[in-house]
Task: inverse folding
């Protein structure tokens, strides 16, 4: 327990100090904020001791799989637990997380060479969302990055639903 608290505090400090830092070329996405980072790390470490948000780590892609491989039990557990935690974070951090989610998923699938499942977009089936919805229809564009407003609305809906579970 003590180690996890120390690790969590270290992650929060690292994220807080990195807020103004340039983007990491290994994973070119801005940090969401200390609260969201703490949620992701806490739940991830509970699921996999080697869970990491460090793109230089050999465990990084395995850690990202929790957030992007939707048809797995690990995804359902990770998102089911991080969603309510993130819902308690400042709105700006939630917005940053949701805004970048689709681009991060596209990056993950490009790096792993895996093919997204039909339900790879957490906003699928929601009004204005991109990706394959419940109907199974394919998107007309590349579907990799959703319109920011649609992604934000869809992700808020997903997090709100998870918070009610």
Result:
């Amino acid at each position: 327990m003590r180690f996890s608290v120390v690790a969590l505090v270290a992650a929060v400090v690292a994220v807080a100090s990195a807020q103004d830092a340039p983007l990491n070329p290994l994973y070119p996405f801005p940090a969401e904020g200390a609260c969201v980072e703490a949620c992701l790390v806490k739940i991830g470490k509970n699921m996999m001791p080697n869970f990491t948000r460090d793109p230089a780590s050999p465990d990084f892609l395995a850690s990202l799989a929790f957030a992007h491989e939707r048809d797995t039990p690990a995804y359902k557990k990770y998102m089911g637990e991080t969603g309510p935690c993130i819902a308690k974070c400042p709105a700006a951090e939630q917005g940053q997380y949701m805004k970048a989610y689709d681009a991060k998923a596209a990056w993950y699938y490009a790096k792993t060479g895996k093919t997204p499942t039909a339900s790879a977009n957490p906003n699928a089936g929601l009004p204005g969302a991109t990706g394959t919805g419940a109907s199974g229809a394919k998107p007309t564009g590349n579907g990799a990055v959703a319109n920011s407003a649609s992604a934000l609305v869809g992700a808020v809906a997903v997090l709100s639903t998870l918070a009610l579970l």
